[in-house]
Amino acid sequence: MQRRPSHQKLVVTEGFEANTQGTLNDIAVREFHDALNRDEEMAFAVAAIMALTAVIKRSSATTLMGVSKELADAAQALQRVNPTNISLKAGCELFLRYTTRTSALELQDIEKAKARLIERGLHFAETSTRARQTIAELGSRFIRSNCTVLTHGYSRVVLRLLQQAFSSGLQFSVIVTEGRPDGTGITMAKKLDVENIPVTLVLDSCVGYIMDKVDMVLTGADAVVENGGIINKLGTYGIALAAQAASKPFYVAAESYKFARLYPLGQADLPEERKPLDVGPMLPPRTNVINPSRDYTPPQCISLLVTDLGVLTPAAVSDELIQLYL
Amino acid sequence: MFPRVTSWDNMTGFQQQPVKQVVGFHVEGASPSPTQPSLLQAAMTAGSPTPVIIPPSFQRETSHASRSAAAADVATRVLVPEVPVRVLDTSGSTTSQAIGAGVQQAAAEAAGAAIRATSSSSAPRPIQHAEKAEASHQGLGKVSSQASINSEASISSGLFSLEASTSRTPPPAAHAQQTSLPGPAGGAQSGPPGQQSGHGHSVTQGQGAALAAEGAPKGPKPQREMTKAERRALQESQRAAKAAQKAGVGGAAPEKPVKGAAATGDAGRAARGGAGVAEARPTGGKPSVTAAVGRSEGERRTDTAGGGAASGPIGVPVANAADREGAGTGAGAGAAPKKKKDPKAVSLNSTELFAHLQQYKRITVSRLLQLPAVGNVHPAILQLGLRYAEGSIRGANARCLAMLNALCQVIRDYTTPDGKELSRDLLRHLSDHVNFLVVCRPLSVGMGNAIRHLKLRISTISPDMPELEAKELLEQEIADYINVRIDSADKQLVNYAVAKVEAHGDVILTYAASHVVQRALVEAARAGKSFRVVVMDSRPELEGRATLARLLAAGIPCTYVHLNAASYIIREVTKVFLGAAAVLSNGTVLSRAGTAAVAMMAHAHSKPVMICCETHKFNERVQLDSITHNELGDPEALSVVPGKPEVTALEGWCDHPRLRLLNLKYDVMPAEYVTMVVTEFGMVPPTSVPVILREFRQSEQTVSGPF
């Protein structure tokens, strides 16, 4: 970026452009990591948006088409950092969409357009950080006193929601699944315990057994897909099915930047991911092991989604996305 | 909700097979129509208790009809099939025997009730109701023997009205079963059906007794408990008695010879079935088969008249002006003049349910030239209309494109008359042309949308604009519409659809022909994906063969099956790609008849159903069934089976007084069977169709056009 040429003299050559873009991509990736390190509450999507905003600040493009292209490349670079992270992808897509919308509005002045994009990016990042609080306020109303909430895995927004409900004086207890293989449920239990919220830990395989005692299920989401279904930690689908069978409401707390333009037809349709297998030592050598880390819960299993845009039915997610993308 | 609608749809046509089977009303040679999905057939025979659904249009009519009339209608209808048997069997002696005064009266009643029922519409009601009505008319406190006569009489009276009425009247399966139950009991004492007339009579009586016995305990109503409407129905039916009976007696006699043959031929089957009702099966079937051949003209007239009178709404297949006239006049008196009607007058090609749709007419040049407005129609539109009519342009997109191109020519050749304003005169001018096209074939939703868009543009042209400029503007508008809403939309849509085909191992089912689905599959193959396609097809259009040819040409391995293999083939399918004629705002998909059955089957097996439809075919309308809006095809197409010249059962169907063929072009599938709608804007759930429509409406209002 030190060698950033003034754009009036820009002579475009292949190598030169690639170099510039390479630098911009580096900036994006560095900014992304910085943002994540700065704040452990930072979500991937928000960090990505901050990184892309940084790219616009450093951009030397003279046309909006150019800016868009640089952003798209930077977004690609970001996604290469963590190719299986859906919320990162969702954040990038959202922001790119914002820029195209903006460029439709500000065709004349490139600098003005850039300023506007940066402003939008910052605004977006800011609202995104506020999203969790909004959700906590909206969602805590769903928790009644003396109820039992089942949750799965560790989700910051769910934790915030429960904190909010507890601090408002409600008495309730939480059942947390263990969350194998990465033990995120244990993390969740610890954090709830710190808050003095009564917590019970159960095995992942205990969900069917415990469902009778549960009043509602509340989970987070890695991504909310276009038909209102969610992609979340492995086991969510099973819990949703159990909840449906037992006629218990299944609520999802998810920030709107997790809305992704994905439309999985089934479990096999999820973005592929490679994870080290968590396998016991006793396994016979010819046994295959499949170890996905996420599953897809279809909208039919979901009662409501608590988002910072409001409490939505699954069908309304698509409405929001269409308004954004159409 | 939906399966019911579908089953209704299927019942409405000529095909009443399942019902017939249950009732034991066998029509030889009347094989089920090829368009009827075997699955549905099976579902219907398997039988929900009330397989007959009354469409809203009839419920409206029913509202003013009395319950007893409806019940009587059902009763007669259920009983009808037996009637011919009995009367025929016993024709000589029994008829005369049966003419005890009480019997006559009862017959009259039943006939009257049936006639009355026509004007009302019937609701599917258990047979007991009918019996009840019967019993209550005939009188309280009568001895049981009389009761048996009553019911017998009702049966034979049913003959007149019913034989006449559409013989395919589908009594609900449940009723039919109920009727058949008492049969063995009553008929047990009687000899085999083919026997002497005296025996025949006793059979009848016995069976009637059984029927009455069954009906009576379920609660005959004393007259004072009857509703006003019921009483009126009774009176009217009594009045109607004479006419009906006269007709009936006259009609029965000539059938003797026919019957003789029939009875012997079917004796074995009848014996197997045992007793009264079963007996009805073979002979009851006979008249309808032999009718065209062996029946005397006089009798035929009777039939027609009765048909006019007694055909109820459930007796769907007959629906036409004549019938409804009869229904309107109500009582038996109305039936008499109708005797003079030519049987052909009844044979329109539609059913009453679909009478509101534009009836199919073969379009010929000479016929078009008779249209008054044809002189003003642009030759391009003339040509286009003929091509629509003959079916050489088909498919929602192709039709829309062709129309827009033709309209473009119309606009180019248009000159504003002196003293008129382009924006107004051109609108009227275009409307004339569009009306002409509608005569040739009803517009598709996509065409309607395109026309509406074009008209909106025309109406906003300022009067100050020079004509040439305005015309150029409009031509450009049409070109844009074609480009953006159809061509580019197709391309974009195909990209999304291709993305949903796995790289390996998909088995994709598609039904009939959809241009954009074909294109998506071809593109997917070109992109190196290895998959197999099951092309599903159905009579009479056999459009799937075009799909098959195109896919095979692209080197895609294919399996070709007909719709009746759906239940088998669905297991090996992984995804279903379907085209659509329109997607409505409640997510309902309007598509080629049969598509809904495919989607339903896929849904039942948890296979994703993807509808490929550009947004120019989206419509704000809401439709819950295939009845309110549909298109009727050439009924002749059902009667000819390609490759099977020996199948001639339906030859000359249009001369048959009681036979209608129904060739529906579209059906609707509710949103719950649709996994996603693939549009040019991406994949959306069917619940989001209104959102897209809303976005369009907004952009149409704010900017000059959506794009």
Automatic annotation (TrEMBL), chain A:
It is found in: Cytoplasm, Cytosol. Belongs to the eIF-2B alpha/beta/delta subunits family. It comes from Volvox africanus. Component of the translation initiation factor 2B (eIF2B) complex which is a heterodecamer of two sets of five different subunits: alpha, beta, gamma, delta and epsilon. Subunits alpha, beta and delta comprise a regulatory subcomplex and subunits epsilon and gamma comprise a catalytic subcomplex. Within the complex, the hexameric regulatory complex resides at the center, with the two heterodimeric catalytic subcomplexes bound on opposite sides. PANTHER family: TRANSLATION INITIATION FACTOR EIF-2B SUBUNIT ALPHA (PTHR45860:SF1). Pfam families: IF-2B. This is Translation initiation factor eIF2B subunit alpha. Keywords: Cytoplasm, Initiation factor, Protein biosynthesis. It comes from the Eukaryota. Its main location: cytoplasm.
Automatic annotation (TrEMBL), chain B:
Residues 222-234 have a biased composition (Basic and acidic residues). The keyword Cytoplasm applies. Residues 115-147, 163-344 are annotated as: Disordered. InterPro entries: IF-2B-related, IF_2B-like_C, NagB/RpiA_transferase-like. Gene3D superfamilies: Translation initiation factor eif-2b, domain 2. Keywords: Cytoplasm, Initiation factor, Protein biosynthesis. It is found in: Cytoplasm, Cytosol. It holds the Pfam family IF-2B. Its main location: cytoplasm. Residues 190-218, 260-270 have a biased composition (Low complexity). Belongs to the eIF-2B alpha/beta/delta subunits family. Component of the translation initiation factor 2B (eIF2B) complex which is a heterodecamer of two sets of five different subunits: alpha, beta, gamma, delta and epsilon. Subunits alpha, beta and delta comprise a regulatory subcomplex and subunits epsilon and gamma comprise a catalytic subcomplex. Within the complex, the hexameric regulatory complex resides at the center, with the two heterodimeric catalytic subcomplexes bound on opposite sides. This is Translation initiation factor eIF2B subunit delta.
